Amino acid sequence: MTEDNKSTPGEPSEAKPAATRPAGASASAPPKPSLGRAMLDGIITGNSAVVTFLAILLALVVGGVLMILADQDVLDQYKYFTAAPGDALSASWSLVSDAYSAMFKGSIMNPDLFADGSLEDNFRPISETITQATPLIFGGLAVSIAFRTGLFNIGAQGQIIAGAVFASWIGFVVDLPPVIHLVFVILAGVIGGGLYAGIAGFLKARYGAHEVIVTIMLNHIAVLLLGWLLTTDTFRRGGQSQPIGKDANDNAVLPNLFGDNLRIHFGIILALLAAGIYWWLLNRSTLGFELRAVGSNPDAARTAGMSVARAQILAMVIAGAMAGLAGVSQVMSSTNPAHTLTPSIDAGIGFDAITVALLGRTKPLGTVLAALLFGALRAGGSVMQASANVSVDIVIVIQAVIVLFVAAPPLVRSIFRLRGAREGAEGGPLAAKETVGVQA
Amino acid sequence: MKLELRGITKRFGSLVANDHIDLTVEPGEIHCLLGENGAGKSTLMNVLYGLYEPTEGEIVVDGTPRKFRTAGDAIDAGIGMVHQHFMLVPVFTVAENVMLGHEETKPMGWLDRRRARKKVLDLVDEYGLKVDPDMLVEDLPVGLQQRVEILKALVRDAKVLILDEPTAVLTPQETEELFRVMRALRESGHSIVFITHKLKEVKAVADRITVIRRGKVVGTADPASSEKELASLMVGRPVKLVVDKTEAEPGAVRLEINDLTVLDGNGQAVVDRVDLRLREGEILGIAGVDGNGQSELTQAILGLRAPAAGSISLDGKDLAGMSPRQILGSGVGFVPEDRQHDGIVSDFTVAENLVLDMVTQAPFGKRGSIVPSAVRDNARERVEEFDIRTQTIESPAGTLSGGNQQKVVVARELSRPLRLFIASQPTRGVDVGAMEFIHKRIVAERDVGTPVIIVSTELDEVVALADRIAVMYRGRIVDIVPPTTSRGDLGLLMAGVLPGAEHADGAGATRADTAPAGPVEAKTNESDATPGEEDPA
């Protein structure tokens, strides 16, 4: 293969043909993804770690601005902004920094306690973060695995409830020796969630019913079914009119890892295990290979002899099993001291799970990290409310803004003038942001 | 309008897709850009159309340098582009699609459909681009959809039209029609940049030819040059255009299809009472205009479509009722006609695509686990063996050029012991160099005794490869003839017309040796194929 010499005289650097191979510079578009898929693919593939980090940073900035806007005392300072800009700025700074440092103290560590606090005191914020993150990891994995198979699982809420109901029932209805009872409870949660999600998978595979619609409807069904179950004698705690379930046996409970004073519990071990299984399933198993193939090109998967229906059903069942574990954690862990079923047992985890999965780009490690971030926001948020007097709702806003920015990578890139954003785009969103406080 | 590209260079990271390309398009000429897949033709045109910014170089229109930041700038400068993948709204009518983006409006922002319609009709008359402005685009065949794309460019006063591999999706007849339109446009002073890697087409319409190889202009050629010259210029080495093969030595019957009928969603028979016998060590070509049941026939053999009636048996084993995985597992290799759609998973790496239908089997899968080293070794071997041009075996298959994607599919299907090999459009969108290679592999597969079925709408390909040709028309096998049959007769058969007894005589005279495997073996539905059934398809 020396033909290059003929056509390109005087270019000795061209000696190695292999180096100059234009390997498909014009990648053509894959066949017709649906609008929703295209959008989600964009979110998942369009974000580098940098963009995700910047999105979080921006969200914290937006959160800070909102804190200022919501605080009348600080806003009053801005009336004299031209006369004494220092006052307004320092009041804003102290408000925002107090809030965020309270959040930090509540979720990561408290420097004030570092010297003379006990080991437990120092570890408590992290313990809280991990405790909050545990069900989110399960939920995030449940959404991720379905997504990799091309299914948008909005039904984590319902699956969590199903898992919680099954787990709770096994928890109080039988009396088994220590470890064994817990194993049965966990299995019950897995089966409950798996079966419930399997309904959506089956309807999709067999009749083509769209999983988004079906899972949303199954969420409603689960919530209402739970409400009804808590009125029945089987589930409702005796002698009470409140819709509260029966207490689980002590043997059925996920044990705390470091004693009664720290809430961190065995669930996190299960969650990391689940993430590990998810990694193996996705990257190393033939089943995962098929799931991913069905997820990105069902036609090619079918032509290669895979059963699309089987993949869809299995993906939903596995997703539901993961979500069911979140249900187990909700009922049987330290976050639920009496270990009972309540009408709001899912605690909104089913929906945060979608955000976690997207933020974690449906990758195992990413999902764990995203869940930890949200766990930290949840754990820190309550401390922030208590000690800095900033509403815990700001946490929800921050979460929402993170998603907003993650959903629009080009926006983040253009704000930070990163490569990839179109050059010379509308000059300076940063400048605009700085004036927000002034006009108020 | 005179268009010049001066020293255009486009880099993607370390990859140089275009390297100092100079190109001049004179008014009123059909300028052909010839090059292999991945040579950088499409990149160059995307630069010209404002979709990519060139790393270096400038675009000069009528003597003034212009900068195209968006496709809109290029359109304003009088450049129109027809992409390989159409950019049409399927549920809109032709007229609506044509006016999309610069709608005619009446006061108060009302859409002026009538004026849009009239504009379309005017253009239709002017250039003979026959298309009904009121049809929904989704109801149009591909050839007509392409016309709508051309109309879209023309209605925006495009003086230079870029056609990116326009014939890749067309039937021979549609291609002829397109050439007629191109010539009409040239007469009216438009210039056309025609991107292709098909030599016949270049010779048929081009006024001037620029050959690109590996991102560089390697020469210009005259349409009078022979195909051989063009091919070697394009590939960079001498190329054989004829398939080198010995006479078939057919053995025992391996595949038997009896009375096979496949229905489409509306209950219409798309494969209609087909009988076929395929022997060991022979290639059966299935010719026919696209959409006459060829794809459905192959899909039925693979178990992707359930037959309504009839039987398919391979080596005496009934395939009906088996799942595609079982059929693949029993030794059927299958190259689907649409690789993007059915052949590869573009998000998957090249290595993963090379084991797509074998991942559950040893050595790639063991007890539910993938063996990554086996997958990697396999990929390295195939990439080497089939000269698949990819940066690494871990690159997503979607980043490969079309021809290399096709090589991935062919490599995968030929990398295991086969008892039947079915290839639909094995070289669609593939350049000459790769085509030569794929053809060689197919013949080699036949020579080890595998029965092979080739479905192709390219008559050249069928004639070059097949030992026998079955012509399909409206779901039926009209006739089975030897490859020496004249093009005229084959064309008639493809239109469903039996040329009477002529071909049998001709065949007998020229290919007496293979005649027993030919028409005699073929039980056709001659009684059913009514020559009088004339319907312009």
TrEMBL record, chain A:
Q: Name one Pfam family in it.
A: BPD_transp_2
As for membrane topology, the entry says:
Multi-pass membrane protein
**Keywords annotated in UniProt:** Cell membrane, Membrane, Transmembrane, Transmembrane helix
Question: InterPro entries, from UniProt?
Answer: ABC_transp_permease (IPR001851)
Q: Does Membrane show up as a keyword for this record? A: yes
Q: Name one GO molecular function term.
A: transmembrane transporter activity
Please list the residue ranges that the record marks as compositionally biased, kind Low complexity.
Answer: 15-29
UniProt-annotated stretches for the region Disordered: 1-32
Source taxon at top rank: Bacteria
Where does the protein principally reside? membrane
TM helices/strands, residue ranges = 49-70, 151-173, 179-200, 212-230, 264-282, 313-332, 394-412
Q: Where in the cell is it found?
A: Cell membrane
The cellular component terms of Gene Ontology attached to this UniProt record, alphabetical and capped at eight, are: plasma membrane
Question: PANTHER family annotated for this entry?
Answer: ABC TRANSPORTER, PERMEASE PROTEIN (PTHR47089), GUANOSINE ABC TRANSPORTER PERMEASE PROTEIN NUPP (PTHR47089:SF1)
Q: What is this protein called?
A: ABC transporter permease
- Species the sequence originates in: Embleya hyalina
UniProtKB/TrEMBL annotation, chain B:
> What does the UniProt keyword field contain?
ATP-binding, Cell membrane, Membrane, Nucleotide-binding, Repeat, Translocase, Transport
**GO MF terms held by the record:** ATP binding; ATP hydrolysis activity
Q: Give the region (Disordered) as residue ranges.
A: 504-537
Its main localization is membrane
Classification via Pfam families: ABC_tran
- Annotated transmembrane regions: none
Q: Which segments show compositional bias classed as Low complexity? A: 506-519
> What residue ranges carry the coiled-coil annotation?
none
Q: How does it sit in the membrane?
A: Peripheral membrane protein
The keyword Membrane is assigned to this record? yes
Q: Which InterPro entries match?
A: AAA+_ATPase, ABC_carbohydrate_import_ATPase, ABC_transporter-like_ATP-bd, ABC_transporter-like_CS, P-loop_NTPase
Listed CDD domains: ABC_Carb_Monos_I (cd03216), ABC_Carb_Monos_II (cd03215)
GO cellular component: a single term: plasma membrane
Cell location: Cell membrane
Known PROSITE patterns for this protein? ABC_TRANSPORTER_1, ABC_TRANSPORTER_2
All copies of the ABC transporter domain together span: 3-239, 255-499
For this entry, the protein name equals ABC transporter
- Source organism of this protein record: Embleya hyalina
